[in-house]
């Protein structure tokens, strides 16, 4: 038969239990993960629901009885001493009280105590997003005593101290659960040395959402910008509208991609990809601007006559005879310009719009590139360079 409660000195029970040799009390921990509620990326925090079990021995609560284990309700929790455990990286935490307080208190006849409660914790997790969205994280749950240093209280992990429930009930929409790790360390502070216990939740991000939301639209927008290379250079409205539309589309995609991220000051993997795609789209628009400029504005200057030692090439076509109503007329072309090409300054540049530059001084150590054929070059250069970029990007972030 257990002695009546009056035989227990409650004024002493609220003090930390110690042995006669004044050795620190040893506490063992066990945590069972029920399921994750959510992971908030913008706030860099996660919410977790756990059963938190603590075990220690208090010799003052020994009793002689045929009953080895005494199970008590939550009303008795306030009548005994319990550890002042805190979660160091928690933002908010709450216990469950519906329909009754979710607490369990068991006392063995040798003074061993088991105290279990259910908690929902919002804990901080500092994320390094350099490889986002191919990143992996270890989110910690850190706890220790609030006021008792290691000279008075020692924390230890129980065997198989961390258990996880069926992962089918976990709501990790953007992450894959990779495993659990638990560690212990001593943290030195001005108030003393404290034993700190830590559980790490290893997570790997799933790319499916970001592939559909960002990567595929960016790739398709870049490919769409290449359509202008197959449109005639004289179709200025069509090519200009296509180029501006793709640039604005990339701007919108870039803005949407950044909304789901914290405002970090460094470049993430997604930022790099979106930026390069934007540059490809913008370069396609600039390609037509250059082509249009050289094809329409690169004409001989007829108003200015310069004295030079350059050889002169007369590019005027010969006059033609037109017969109208049995009358013959001589037709002279209005463009009576003489273009200085063979030894002129245009033959000293790398790009040339005129076939005549192939002769003369142009052959001396230079390669003839016809600007009017810029679309033909772009049809090969843009897809090839974008393919090489994707090869380096995905291999570098996924396998290196």
UniProtKB/TrEMBL annotation:
PROSITE patterns: NEUROTR_ION_CHANNEL
Cystine pairs: 125-139
Gene3D superfamilies referenced in this protein's UniProt entry, alphabetically: Neurotransmitter-gated ion-channel ligand-binding domain, Neurotransmitter-gated ion-channel transmembrane domain
Subcellular location: Postsynaptic cell membrane
Highest taxon above the source species: Eukaryota
Record-linked Pfam families: Neur_chan_LBD, Neur_chan_memb
PANTHER family for the chain: NEUROTRANSMITTER GATED ION CHANNEL
Name of this chain's protein: Gamma-aminobutyric acid receptor subunit gamma-3
